[in-house]
Amino acid sequence: MQYALSVRNLTKKFSAFTAVDNVSFDVEDGKFFSILGPSGCGKTTLLRMIAGFYTQTDGQILFGGQDMTNVAPNKRPVNLVFQSLALFPMMNVFENIAFGLRRRGEKGAAISRKVNDVLERVSLPDAGAKQVHQLSGGQKQRIAIARCLVLEPRVLLLDEPLGALDAKLREHMKVELKKLQAQVGTTFIYITHDQSEAMVMSDQVAVMNAGRFEQVGTPQDLYHGPSSSFVAQFVGSNNKLRVSLRAAGRGKYVAKYANGLQYPVPETDYLEAGDGWDLFVRPEAMIINPSVQAGDFNLMPATVKSILFDGGNSRLLVSPRGTDDELVVALPQNRQYDAIRAGDDVTIGWDPTKSVCYKSVDWKLYDEE
Amino acid sequence: MKSDTRRLGSAFLLFFIPVILWLLLLVVLPHLELLRLSFTGNGRPGEVGFSLDNYMAFFKEPIYWLTFVRTAMYAILVTVLVTAIALPVSFYITKLVKVRAAGFLMVLLLVPFWVSELIRVYGWIILLRESGVLNRLLVSIGLFTEPVEMLYNDITMVMGLVYTSMLFMVIPVIGVMEDLDDSLIEAAHDLGASRLAIWRTIIIPHCTPGIVSGGIIVFMLVLGSYLTPNLMGGKNSLWFTEQIYNQIILYFNWNQGAAFGFLLLVLSSLIIWVLLKLTGQNLKEVVK
After folding, report:
1. Whole domain around residue A31: which residue ranges?
2. What is the domain extent for residue B238?
């Protein structure tokens, strides 16, 4: 298998602070690869090293097997779509896209053929003569990508390019970008702190935290089988139950929750008896008032605190009996649960195999600005 | 409500009367008088009343218009040199050094301008003259066998003019360069541009308004400067302002001097207008 990009033991230190810590990964040709992490986790530093704006302290970056350590950004087969897009305001759209081609010394006829071709591909065929400030947010986005794609880079890097767009347009652009990538077949490496962007678009997602990769896998892998406490909390939404573990014989463990209820935990090799464990159960895995009371289904009596109506994404905020904790439970809008009101008593049930248990670690998942 | 506006009106008048008087009495009236003088004969027999002779003299006597051409050419040269130096200096201050160091460098640029131009020119003279500091140094380390006169030639004069007008280019260029988004430079670099191409296609086009306004100030300043060319340029470096000085002070021919003054104003404005047209700039946008 040919790798478009291979990163080997990459490390970047800023004096005493290690921004990127011994990161290795491979990206196959033509894949959509996302690096997902909270702000300050080192993902932009990693991206800037790949683009060539930073020199790594240690490690290697290879494009198609070739070492690029001492190659300047303008000589690398990689282009970067900036977070601010960085379209040149002193040029019109055509000249923006032609910029890279002109630097390569291509001729006028070839340039205008290629530029019109790429404008066609991003579905803005008549935008060439426009000035940058005449474009809408989504159009600027596509021009910024077209400006890189016209150079046919081996790898296209995208640094949170949807960050500046409003919510509706962002949803739309997610689908657009995915389609565009499938159509042009260029390898995309996409940086984001928005797990929904990463999940919707990517073939592979790397979850990054404090300079390291926590887990690399398909979005489904990350969602169903998070390999660490951080991934379990960062990817998708999750309920965290503080529990203590008790050995139940034959390598099995039981989690004891604050209100005294006990739940079997899926078997893994790292479990051990003691305090300070977190049991993660996704809101979508929780069922309200389960009708089938099978023996191996975990049940928890709770009181409804409030109903968070949000169409198809509606949630129920409940408090397990005997605690002040808050759990979020998916509230399917199939009219079955319309009768539930705040203050009602409900029973929450979940399949024990859909929960995961990790040693407690407190992560800062977002900045409250 | 109405009395409020009236009070505001009277306060406005109170503060503006001194300004208006200042402009009228010290700027507008003297200029009108000079304009009248320039169109009047110099009072010698047969040369009284309205006359265009003062202006015709400029075009008839090669020494006058050649001095002007020489002055204008040197002013353009100085403007170009100042631009060439100010661009990298401003880039260094705004983009490369840390914020606190940038403040310190700005102070270093400004400090020499707290001292009058005359003092600064004498400073240069102390450094450059035959028995000056630089000559002593070069002779003592054996680079020169005997002192060389470095003053009183065109190169020294141009250097002095570049030095005295530098700040007036650096400040507007720093102003526009601060607005330049670093990611534009990085994007250009990422798209394959070399350093030279980045300067040519991104930085200079972005800074054009600052360069043009700075250029106008420097050009006018150099064209109208008197001290530096007079003191550093020596006998052979005749500057047009010296012609005006000679007419008024030496020959006591105010009429001729006034005419030269207005010619300087009109011709320099004309040169700026032509240069703006040639480079496709709009004065309104530059002033904005």
Report:
1. 3-230
2. 39-287
pLDDT digits (tens, 9 = 90+) for A286-317: 888 877 666 677 888 888 988 888 888 888 89
Residue B7 placed within a domain: no
The alpha carbon of residue B186 is apart from the nearest alpha carbon of chain A, in Å, by 8
Token pair in block for residue A96 = 């923006």
Interface subset of A 148-177, CB within 8 angstroms of B: 148, 151
Q: Are residues A263 and A195 in the same domain?
A: no
Residue B246 lies in a domain: yes
Q: How many residues does chain A have?
A: 369
Domain harbouring A245, CATH code: 2.40.50.100
- In chain B, pLDDT over 70 holds for what percent of residues? 92
Question: Is B211 domain-assigned?
Answer: yes
- pLDDT tens digits for range A166-213: 888 888 888 888 888 888 888 999 999 888 888 888 999 999 988 889
Say which CATH number the domain at B273 has: 1.10.3720.10
Which residues of chain B are within 8 Å of residue A84 when distances are taken between CB atoms?
A: 181, 183
Same domain, A52 and A184: yes
B135-159: pLDDT as tens digits: 888 888 888 788 777 888 888 899 9
Beta carbons of A88 and B184 less than 8 Å apart: yes
Residues A16 and A80 in one domain: yes
Q: What total number of domains does chain A contain?
A: 2
Which pLDDT score, from 0 to 100, does residue A362 have?
67
Contact A99 B201 (CB under 8 A): yes
Boundary residue ending a domain (A197, A230, A263): A230
Share above pLDDT 70 across residues of chain A, in percent, rounded to a whole number:
96
Give residue B153's identity as a one-letter amino acid code.
N
| Distance (Å) from the alpha carbon of A200 to chain B's nearest alpha carbon | 27
The verdict on A211 and A291 lying in the same domain is no
Q: Is the pLDDT of residue B288 over 70?
A: no
Of the candidates A303, A350, A298, which has an alpha carbon nearest to the alpha carbon of residue A324? A303
Identify whether B152 is part of a domain: yes
Does A38 score more than 90 pLDDT?
A: no
Q: Is the pLDDT of residue B199 over 90?
A: yes
At B88, is the pLDDT very low, low, confident or very high (cuts 50, 70, 90)? very high
Q: Residue B204: its chain A contacts at CB < 8 A?
A: none
Q: Which two tokens stand for residue A263?
A: 């739940």
DSSP B22: H
**Domain boundary pick from A230, A251, A276:** A230
- CATH at residue A116: 3.40.50.300
Q: Supply the ipTM of this predicted assembly.
A: 0.79
